[in-house]
Amino acid sequence: MLKISIIGCGNIGSFLLKSVKNKILECEVVSVLDKDVERVEKLRRELNMKFNIARNINELIKNSNLVVEAASQDAVREYSAEILESGCSLMIMSVGALVDNEFFNRLRDICIRRNVKIYIPSGAVAGIDGLKAARLSRINSVSMTTRKNPRALNLPDSSKKIVYEGSAGEGIKKFPENVNVAATVSMAGIGIENTKLRIISDPEINDNVHEIHVYWDFGEFKIKMKNLPSKENPKTSFIAALSAIAMLKRISEPVEIGT
Ligand SMILES: NC(=O)c1ccc[n+]([C@@H]2O[C@H](COP(=O)([O-])OP(=O)(O)OC[C@H]3O[C@@H](n4cnc5c(N)ncnc54)[C@H](O)[C@@H]3O)[C@@H](O)[C@H]2O)c1
User: Ligand 1 — pocket residues by CB below 6 A?
Assistant: First the structure.
């Protein structure tokens, strides 16, 4: 059975724990690390689970095959190299941290040397399978539009407006907690410099909407996701947590469906 440890028990991490508790996901949770220790303790009591509460990264990785990061880009920068060096694979939700090429290549080299893997779930978007296939031919353009309520973007409530338009790379720096999806789309497709991103703040919507338009040598495709935000964190779409669970199932189950 897959033995996982989790960094971050906020919205995504706590949903993962609940899914293990309710046997939606068949795996063992060994340890959980969160800078808010009281939050982990409270969750462990409420769920009546037996995982360890790790105080540092060494305690977290002990006896685990895979660590799930569901915390922040800082956590990815701080812990990833050590986790991979220890021989544990790593699932990353805060994908924006990987757009730093030097950092990404360093982690990739560790994966090759230590025979471990980094897993990046599709998160709040669909269509990653199409991008991965199309890039084997030639992708001419990828443009992405994200619409969110100003509350989810940490912006003052005002009229509907474009708050960012440019490369995905710059957009991820400006809105690090909101456009992890742009990082995932860029990595699966044509990179952060060539992927175009527009972010719209719209006080009249409550959904998180992502539209992706891809032109490639043998056609085009459009994907529109209209996601309801999680109750606990309006920045995070509920489907992102489900996507992490779907990927863990894919790793642990005998049959894989989809590219
Ligand atoms: N890939 C995607 O499509 C996608 C979608 C939604 C969210 N995300 C990202 O996933 C991450 C988790 O999202 P969430 O909604 O669960 O967030 P959240 O704010 O609800 O929870 C994050 C938890 O991590 C803890 N934490 C943060 N930094 C830490 C650190 N350095 N060390 C230890 N603990 C730390 C916090 O105390 C908190 O309990 C965020 O970075 C978010 O941007 C990715």
Answer: 7-13, 33-36, 39, 70-72, 74-75, 78, 93-95, 123-124, 177, 180-181, 184, 232-233, 236, 240
**Contact at 8 Å (CB) between 10 and 68?**
no
Pocket mutation for ligand 1, best pick of 59, 93, 119 (most atoms within 8 Å of C-beta): 93
Residue-range domain boundaries for the chain: 3-123+239-252, 128-229
- 3-123+239-252: CATH architecture: 3-Layer(aba) Sandwich (3.40)
8 Å CB contact between 124 and 94: no
∠ CA 27-33-38, nearest 5°, is: 115
What Cα–Cα distance (Å) separates residue 51 from each residue in 37, 61, 92, 161? Answer: 13, 12, 20, 45
CA 221 to ligand 1 center in whole angstroms: 30
CATH 3.30.360.10 for the 128-229 domain, yes or no: yes
- Which of the residues are catalytic? 210
Q: pLDDT tens for the chain, 259 residues: list them.
A: 899 999 999 999 999 999 999 999 999 999 999 999 999 999 999 999 999 999 999 999 999 999 999 999 999 999 999 999 999 999 999 999 999 999 999 999 999 999 999 999 999 999 999 999 999 999 999 999 999 999 889 898 788 999 999 999 999 999 988 889 999 999 999 999 999 999 999 999 989 999 999 999 999 999 999 998 877 777 788 899 999 999 999 999 999 998 8
Are the beta carbons of 190 and 132 closer than 8 angstroms? no
**How many angstroms is it from 205 CA to the middle of ligand 1?**
23
